[in-house]
Amino acid sequence: MASSSGSKMDSGPARSLSRRMTRAQSVMVDLPNEDSSTVDSELVPSSLAAIAPILRVANEVEKENPRVAYLCRFHAFEKTHKMDPHSSGRGVRQFKTYLLHRLEKEEEETRPQLARNDPKEIQLYYQQFYEKHIQEAEYTKRPEEMAKIYQMASVLYDVVTTVVPSENIDKQTKTYAKEVERRQAQSQHYNILPLFATGVKPAIMELPEIKAALQAIRSVENLPMPRIHPETHVQDETSERPVERVRSVTDILEWLSSVFGFQKGNVANQREHLILLLANIDIRHRHLEDYTELDMATVVELSDKIFKNYRSWCHYLRCKQNIKVPQGADKQQLLLIYIALYLLIWGEASNIRFMPEFYGILFSNVHPVSGDPYQTAVRDDEAFLRGVITPIYQVLRKEVRRNKGGKASHARWRNYDDLNEYFWSEKCFRLAWPLDQKADFFVRSDDFQPPNERANHGTTGKQKPKTNFVEVRTFWHLYRSFDRMWIFFILALQAMIIIAWSPDGTILAIFDEDVFRDVLSIFITYAFLNFIRATLDIILSLNAWRSMRFSQILRYILKFVVAAAWAVVLPIGYSSLIQNPTGVLRIFHSWGQDWRSASFYYYAVAIFMIPNVLAAILFCVPYIRRTMERSSLLPITILMWWAQPKLYVGRGMHEDMFSLLKYTQFWIMLLISKLAFSYYVEIMPLVGPTKAIMQMRVYNYEWHEFFPRLKDNLGVIVAIWAPIVLVYFMDAQIWYAIFSTLFGGIYGAFSHLGEIRTLGMLRSRFDAVPSAFSQYLLPSSKSEGSKRRDQDESMERRNIAYFSQVWNEFIRTMRMEDLISNRDRDLLLVPYSSSDVTVIQWPPFLLASKIPIALDMAKDFKGKDDDELFRKIRSDPYMHSAVIECYETLRDIIYGLLEDEIDRMVVREIYYEVDICLQQRRFLTEFRMSGLPILSQRLERFLSLLQQTDYDDEEIYKSLIINVLQDIMEIIIEDVMMNGHEIYERTNIHLRDSQSNKREQRFEKINIRLMLNKSWIEKVVRLHLLLTVKESAINVPSNLEARRRITFFANSLFMNMPSAPKVRKMLSFSVLTPYYKEDVMYSTEELNRENEDGISTLFYLQKIYPDEWTNFLDRINDEKNEYSDKDKLEQERMWVSFRGQTLARTVRGMMYYRQALELQYFLEFAGDSVFYGGYRTMELPEEEQRAFSDRAQALADLKFTYVVSCQVYGAQKKSTDNRDRSCYTNILNLMLTYPSLRVAYIDEREETVNDKPQKCYYSVLVKGGDKLDEEIYRIKLPGPPTEIGEGKPENQNHAIIFTRGEALQTIDMNQDNYFEEAFKMRNVLEEFQKRRGGPRRPTILGLREHIFTGSVSSLAWFMSNQETSFVTIGQRVLANPLR
User: Terminus of the chain with fewer CB atoms < 10 Å: N or C?
Assistant: First the structure.
């Protein structure tokens, strides 16, 4: 095995000995049945992760030079043995055995190609590789290509040093290696911005906002540079004394990393994140196309957003903010430092991100940046993780272990919220900086010691109790959680029963003195209910008293004492109103004999209601309530302390006055209706029967009767009233459903919802769709807005031109999704506006059967008046447009097809004669309408021939076209025109020569190459459709899902929505999808596997979607697509997977966002040139086309990022399970199909720490490369993140740091998206920029969902319609008026 060439005689034992050590008996690794190259590089054990790049290089060069690939694997084997000589790591022994067997086989099969021995072979190959791929490559290759090339060159040189002794490496190789080492630091795999990459600079790096942001974060001139302190060793007197060095940094984030010790992956990730944030915010403040400096307002705006919670936290705890800008300092630089510090902490916080107030401690203890020299030594990359994040994480982890898998009581362990509430009090400042691990936050309980945990962290003592709240599971929560509702309904029921029981029985009885006095007893009931509430407050919070502040405990006690006092005082006072009290009131009457004044009760009620009156006043003035809740003044604090417990969250959430008015009006109307119904329908009808039953005397009771001896037949009364009381308390929900439906329907009508519900309604209003599209979905300036009010024909054509780009892409995506057929697609496409036609070109489905009807109308017309015929045609605008379009398009087709100038002159004369006759209103006298049907038949034949592409003999095909064309011209001249012979006379062709050879040779010279012109063929196809389609357009498309999407999109254009900004000025956003082990794509085996009923998945879907399966077969069998048999099988898998709840369907849907952004940029870039072509048929020089494509992709990268958090992707990559390998392969294929897709996963590695294997966890972001994935960022975690909390939130949390932009859309992996809805995303994002009358902009936005599995069963159909109707209405009402 080339051991002689690979050994260094002066560096220990020969490598052959080390290889022999691996020949021990071991089990061969169970490798999946797939390409060995993938096995080599992707199934490397986690403890040998450094070997994977070497094996990838071996796979890359194997086809070109198998011997070099063998040497690479030899180097990988040598490195493997050095890393783990005893094969103690998991799977290392099996991997060594496999690699050794392969090396033995390849040593015999491969031979050097460039030289006679291996040392010379690898050096020559390395030199050739450098000269071929690296020299001058930075001017021709992209940055990602250069990153891969430099990585390969570095690995190849490592192989050189392994195979060739250092003294035998030639000078040229060393020179190339030094150059590679110098450049490799600037060539790294990147996410979006190639900040340090070499090669052709991408278009995104040329954007002025990116340049300005990059320049701003690289401003480090005024910062104190960190010093690298030398290591202290025992030195001789003659030795030189080590000198302190100042470490140079390139930007603010690297400076912060050297000060605090952040990881390199975290720094690189947040560097790009910060640049993109600054660039996107800055461009919205600019009106210039080119600039170099970042606007200060941009930094201030970003600072206000990021530190909003920190400033609120400081205000809550009455501590000073530590974000300071000293006088005379560079404000922009300092603010950027604080922003970058926050992002770096956030990027490394792992599970601590669920405790946002923890950041406040860090910022309150971090010393502000000053101009003094910074003397602290440079920290290592994991200092912050080790010193700050890991201790907090360990506290979380220990608390989760106390949970005992959900079996322990909630009172025995603390979750995220409990630990986060620790930072809502002044006690959190005891943590200090650096963190004091003896603080009470780190205290562990005595009765719990996690296994394998050392007790040198923190102190051992009593377990820290939960904070503020401990859940107690009891049915009393039904009352305490909704106490105000229960109190209101109970008091209202009492008052209504008293009024109904009065002799009058009407609502006016309340003005009777006795009735009014009885009604006043509701305040006594209120006092007792309030006492129950105060008692429950103490009982339900008793377990949390150990951790509560004294002020909170005092509040509970005082509330209880006051409630108890009122429960005694009010009955005493009320007894003074009763002349002869009985029952319980007699006792209170005896207590209050000295308080005989009847006015005492009224005063007592007035005092008792003061808190409620004040609360009502503050409720009606939300600004004062909001200010009081956020105030730190002592009197206001005491007042608010009594009104509600002081918590950090939920303060100042009141809306504006107008929203409050709508909210109050809604509930007043609802409660009036509910109480009126309850009074007149439920309570009053029972009063009379109840009185009658109470007066009845029953003396003989049967044995089975209950409560026979109760006074006034009370048992019967309870039995009658119990159902009514239950309905009384429950029907509020029914009334809410009624009112929400009414208000939601009215609000929807005013919002223009449901104006287009069917295709028939779409046809009737399609002419208004382009203008609505331009109004809402296209950005417009004020000047353009004023012009659009003048809807002349040119503006209408402009609107249709823009609309056609999006509509046609929409229709094409439905065709690619197999929702519609090729014929449906052709009927639905809107022609790109052309100057060749004087009328507006509508889609053929609107013009279907218009031409045949017009021909029949003209043929059967008996009059000679042109005006009457044309009036009938003009009565239908679509028919009029179709007739003129056919007329002009036929002229262009025939004129373009003819080559002979005499033939063209004949055509011009014919059309000239038609135009003159139309102008002089003698068309019917000069032309025979009876010849039009046969002319139409020949035109259909002519157009069908022009569309044929599968002819064998070009001459025969050409002759067929000539014959039909001659027939058409003969019919026009002889059968249709009265004086057609005059055409030949004007062209010097006499009528008597029409039967000679000269006439037969007319129209024989045609340009058959014109059929290669795509735009000309589109005219032919469209004209053929207009002439032949005779069925009603109401049936196009026939697919129900396609109809739903078309009508929904058209209807949404008439809704009230924010106007669309330009692409560069829109909010940037990301989409995050969590994924665990669900289906990515179905395999061929899964498609054909039959269930117990003998039904396969493929067969089932074919029966559910028969029309879509037919469309699919038409697409894959179309010769234009050129699908191979393998491609057809892959397309079949995709067809099935896109109809299930798979990750592939979700990724395809989310990637429509990017496609929509590129189309939006095209509409802005092209301007009025859209009149002359389409998005896919744009004709530009090659360089301009490439520049346009690069700029469109740059803006799409700037505005949109898609991250799929595949939690176990790393484990699936190394797994030998067939399903896991299938998931890995499918996810990899998705990354290769969509280059902008990013996959984040949690990587588990075995690393040696203190000579012991230890599991380490990383958050990793990868993207698709040429054949495999490429790692972009790797950030170490304090431990396994999914052991804390729940799986899905933790999966999202670890990946959220890789998202970009100012908005984040969370999408589950069973959801989908549509292109037409993706086009409206920038309108949706504008909702975050609008103020809805309140003090705050919205921060969470909900979108309606469509359940696409509704066709599977009747239950699914019901749930789908429920989501569409009731859920949507409910959310609409909650947004307005109940916001």
Answer: C
